[in-house]
Amino acid sequence: MQVVKKTPFEPGRRDFRLPFDLNGMTLVLWGTAALVAVALLLPVVYLTVRALGAGSEAWQGLFRFRTLETLARTVWLAVVVTGASAAIAVPLAWLTTRTDLPLRRLWAVLTPLPLVIPSYVGAYLFVSAFGPRGLLQQILEPVFGVTRLPEIYGFPGALLALTLLSYPYLLLTVRAALSKMDPAFEEASRSLGQDAWGTFWRVTMPLLRPALGAGCLLTALYVLRDFGVVAIMRYNTFTRVIYVSYTTFDRSQAALLALVLVAITLFFLALEARVMSQARHFQAAAGPVRPTTLVALGPWKWPALAFCGTVVFTSLVLPAGLLFYWLVRGLGAGETIPRLELAVWNSVLASGLGAIAIVLAALPMAILVVRRPGRITRLLERLTYSTFALPGIVIALALVFFGANHVPQLYQTLPMLLLAYGILFLPQAVGAVRASLLQIHPNLEEAARSLGRSPLQAFFGVTFPLLRPGLAAGASLAFLTIMKELPATLILAPIGFKTLATGVWAAVSEAFFAQAAAPALLIILMSSLPMTFFILNEQRID
Amino acid sequence: MKFNLRVFLLTCMVFSVLVLTACGSAATPVPTDVPTDVPVESPTEAPAEEATATSAPTEPVTDGDAPADGGALVVYSGRSEALVGPIIAQFSEATGIQVEVRYGSTAEIAATLLEEGANSPADVFFAQDPGGLGAVAKEGLFAELPEETLAKVPAEFRSPSGLWVGISARARIVVYNTDALKPEDLPADIADFTDPKWKGKIGWAPTNGSFQAMLTAMRVVWGEEKAKEWLEGIQANEPKVFDGNAPIVEAVGAGEIEVGFVNHYYLYRFLKEQGEGFKARNQFLTGGGPGSLVMVAGAGRLANGKNEANAIKFIDFMLSTVAQQYFAGQTYEYPLVEGVNTQGGLTPLAELKRLEIDMVDLDDLAGTTKLLQETGVLP
User: Fold this and answer.
1) Which chain A residues are Cβ-neighbours of B238 within 8 angstroms?
2) How many CB atoms neighbour CB B38 within 10 A?
3) Is pLDDT above 90 for A337?
């Protein structure tokens, strides 16, 4: 049996921290990190510039009762969605990594896929399905005489749609942690007489705390920034207040409100930091992970299957099926669908380049955060997340402000768009890379160095190969979130650059459903590709 | 097993992507035959005439003073590609001028223009509503349009200082469910929807630009007090709030609500996709009040645009017979230029008992939003 090292390296240990060692590695790391930090600061600087121009009316608007009420509603929604996502994601993660669930690998592939559905499409589809006179009602009417279903709009609808579309964030992080967790802990618990249930609560859950913390943070911030779902579900959150300011062309007030979102993000970050700091020492189990002995579900496999089936059906099969129905209905009625080859290519190009750029930017950030812990790196980490709750339109306008007026050569070019994607989605990738890096013991690299390798050689020879699954995870997350990104793409893409997301938007906003269905289905299919391979890879390692 | 699942999934996905892309390309030859079902005197002559009329003297000038890189005309469009893409393509074809279009919502595009300021690459802003045009005009980003361009459109449908011009018009109407109501059940004035008998039956979209334009008209015509009372009255009737016009029409058709305050042309798209059985129809309110508002989508030329002559050609083309017929026939809007008829059984603009109001009076969006926030309609 492998010896478990409780705390094999302490974060602050002197001999691994090389603050004044000006070797190539350090230069590259800090140089890239500084560039990334500057980019991440752009939106906040822009917002501050705009907010300073705010008149007294905008400040009064900020402290109106209704604004504060909306703020409270938004935070409440974020908290409840995060809780509900955890309730779906943790059992799913456990079932697909630790049990003999029938068709386990298929469920493992299908369950994270709802993440690829754009929220503005997903919410629309949920309304068509579960609305007062939606699909479900039409099925129920002839059988039970139901003429009207209860209202879906407002909090319940927002909760349902956001949970079903964002639980994969938690699922992916928790499952990654589960599959990398040393089974020795659980085996020890079982051998000491705990049953599967007790082991899960007393051993597995505490070990999952860092992953849960990171996943919850991503989910909560995703809720804060989302506009598509809350607009369609008619639940007034803070992003809607910001949007209302933009529709009246009041940029100062919008900026002031957006800064409040940054403040809420910092609050959530502090919360997560507390969870992480209490949990850090659990994370250090390192070294090769043996395959786990799977828990036999026995008769419990039926409720487990029903649970997986229900989640996959409502969050994936139903939306995709409805889109397909729209497409067929439209084609049947003689609708024509515009060519999509170019949009497919553009989407793949932007998402692919964006994913590569994001992973390249995330790597040094993650290395610094994990391997050079200290005050500055902690600040860097906070900074990565600080803009994650900002709606895309805010980031886009910040780059319009800097781009058009200071670097017109780059304005509305592909690099500029990639920069916007980077600011929007970097935290996801940093999270994935960091989680992976935490599980690679620094002793390995130190050994390589003691054998005469330079820091760069040691990194690329030893750590990098082990880090590849983490990089792939970060890249595929970035790929699919970029593919469905809309506001920044509309404003900052090179002119005439059409993607699948802009195609969906153009058609849906004018009620051409058949025309929307084809690109929406393509987004789902194309972003499922890297996702599927990343999941299958993870499973194979496991 | 491992290997099989991978190959199976990959094959499925690649196959579906190919099928979907293919069904797109199979149905391609669309955009060019657009105007054929519109009764056109001569589809190519009119723009050619237009082009030569304005370009003959200006063409060499453009080549001379426009920098070489300012070749393509840059249009920022707050109107969606589905609506204006085909007619813009026709402009390019007719004039040989290359056009590059950035599409977005009118509010987003206007915000972008305001941030870009003098450094905007845009030559023309084609907006969905007068509010967006007004915001850009207020920042001094538009240049005055030539008199001949402005003169094509009645004075009430353009900026009095000549900074932007209306291209096509849309009517505010009430869409109703044909199972629940007949046209005669609907009041003549939108003010009467505050009657408690409409409780729970109304759908509206307070974030929508056109709705806000109607509310602005109420403030202008009725005064702040009555507009506020109307909002409070409708609020008391617990209206269903929607995100835009299309979902309202969908909900009316599904019988989820009985009436909705929307623009007139959404209905025709549903009828096209779902057939005549779709259970919603339009009613243009007969009272001539703010509920009978007709408003424009319009365009202005950006003062710092590099392609002055081509920008004006573009706007002139949108006001040409061909383009006006396109808007009437393909997007079911009201043409603004005299001599072009409405389509699809729409009553011509001149015969409508509509609200008499200048479009420029509709640009006080800030006041309207404030009212919406005070009454708790918007957050």
Assistant:
1) none
2) 17
3) no
| Residue A163, domain extent | 64-286+301-326
A496 touches chain B (CB under 8 A): yes
Q: So what's the pLDDT on residue A293?
A: 72
Of B108, B207, B266, the CB nearest to A487: B108
Interface mutation target, options A109, A249, A346, chain B, most CBs of B under 10 Å = A249
Neighbouring CB atoms inside 10 A of A197's CB total 9
Tens digits of per-residue pLDDT, A225-245? 888 888 888 888 888 888 888
| Residues of chain B found within 8 Å of residue A400, distances taken between Cβ atoms | 112, 115-116
* Phi, psi (degrees; rounded to nearest 5) at B127: -110, 155
Identity of the highest mean pLDDT range in B138-152, B235-249, B355-369: B138-152
CA A194 → CA A177, A202, B322, distances in Å? 22, 9, 80
Sequence-ordered list of residues with C-beta below 8 angstroms from that of A238, at least 6 positions apart, any chain: A70, A71, A74, A224, A257, A260, A261, A264
Whether residue A339 and residue B243 make contact (CB cut-off 8 A), yes or no, is no
What pLDDT is attached to residue B7?
Answer: 61
B-proximal residues of A, 340-379, CB under 8 Å: 340-341, 344
Question: Total structural domains in chain A?
Answer: 2
A313 plus A440 within the same structural domain:
no
Do A131 and B251 make contact, defined as CB atoms within 8 angstroms? yes
Nearest CA in chain A to B76: A495
| pLDDT tens per residue, range A439-455 | 777 888 888 888 888 87
- pLDDT confidence of residue B92: 95
User: How far off is chain A from B138, nearest CA to CA, in Å?
Assistant: 11
Asked if A532's CB is within 8 angstroms of B21's CB, the reply is: no
Per-residue confidence at B1, pLDDT binned at 50, 70, 90? very low
pLDDT at B55 over 50: no
* Residue A98 sits in the same domain as residue A134: yes
The residues that bridge with B126 in the sheet, in sequence order, are: B77, B299
Q: Which residues contact A306 (CB under 8 A, 6 or more apart)?
A: none
Q: Are A158 and A126 in contact (CB under 8 A)?
A: no
- How would you class A357 by CB atoms within 10 Å of its CB: exposed for 0-12, middle for 13-18, buried for 19 or more? buried
CB nearest A249 (choices: B102, B135, B273):
B135
**Which A residues, 245 through 304, put their C-beta within 8 Å of a C-beta on chain B?**
246-251
Q: Has residue A16 been placed in a domain?
A: no
Prediction pTM value: 0.83
The answer to whether B30 contacts A336, with C-beta atoms less than 8 Å apart, is yes
User: At residue B315, does pLDDT exceed 90?
Assistant: yes
CATH code of residue A93: 1.10.3720.10
Q: Which residues of chain B neighbour A247 with C-beta distances below 8 Å?
A: 107, 207, 209, 212, 365, 369
**Whether residue A73 is found in the same domain as residue A53:** no
Assigned domain for A243 exists: yes
Q: What is the ipTM of this complex?
A: 0.83
| Portion of chain A with pLDDT greater than 70, in percent | 92
A192 falls within a domain? yes
